[in-house]
Each structure stands twice: as structure tokens, then as C-alpha cells.
Amino acid sequence: MDIKTFVFPAIATIGALLVYFGLGIGVGVARVKYKISPPQTTGNEDFERVYRAHQNTLEQIVIFLPSLWLFSIYVNPNWGAILGVAWIVGRILYAWGYYVEASKRAPGNAIASLATLALIFGTLFNLVRGLLFAN
């Protein structure tokens, strides 16, 4: 395969990393705004929502990135990139909703989670199919 085959998944990876980086900057800004000095992570509900949006994205990116690349290698890099962009949009909507009110994070979480599940199960399906029906 040509290295250009994986340009779009690479761009999606960089996009996901930029979202995570941006959420980290948001935590720093919120620390100043709400006067929550490190190592504190509690004391103001508005800060706690910003902090949890960042931490939850960290928890999810660990699952997302390998699944994005496995899908891109074993299934289709273009579809992997599309699902990667869906994950990014979902995480942005998740954080935005969470910043407003904890209950408003669900739609973004659903989008990102469905994208991750599609990556995982799409890869698994293709791998098992390849093993069962290999020439």
C-alpha cells in the first residue's frame, strides 16, 4: 500500500489530538476563571464539568485511536477517516454539552461511542471473515 492511502486517517488522528489538546487548554482557562488551583479538581461545579469533559476524552481516546488505525488498515482507510471525523464531532458536542449542563453531554457521547463501536466491530468482522473465508 502507498503511504498516501492513510492520509485521511492520519488527518483524523491529528484532529482528535487537537480536540484533546484544546480541551486541556479549556481546563487551564477554567482553573483561572473558577480559581481552582492545581492539584485541586473539585470545588466548583462549572470547573468540574470542564475537567471531566477533558478527562473523559482522554479515557475514550485510548480506545478510539487504536480502533481507528486497525479499521483503516484492515477494512478501509477512507471509511475509517469518516468514522474518525464522526468521533471528533461527537467529542466536541459532548464537551460543549457538558460545559452547559451534565445532562446535555449524552448526544455527543452517543455519536462518539457509536463511531468507536463501528470501528471496533467493523474491524473484528473483517478479520474474522478473512480468517474463515481465506483462500
Automatic annotation (TrEMBL):
Membrane topology designation: Multi-pass membrane protein
Intracellular or extracellular location(s): Membrane
Keywords: Membrane, Transmembrane, Transmembrane helix
Pfam family name, one: MAPEG
InterPro entries in the record: MAPEG, MAPEG-like_dom_sf, Membr-assoc_MAPEG
TM region(s), chain numbering: 6-30, 111-132
Highest taxon in the source lineage: Bacteria
PANTHER family xrefs: MICROSOMAL GLUTATHIONE S-TRANSFERASE, MICROSOMAL GLUTATHIONE S-TRANSFERASE-RELATED
Protein name as catalogued: MAPEG family protein
Organism, as annotated: Pseudanabaena yagii GIHE-NHR1
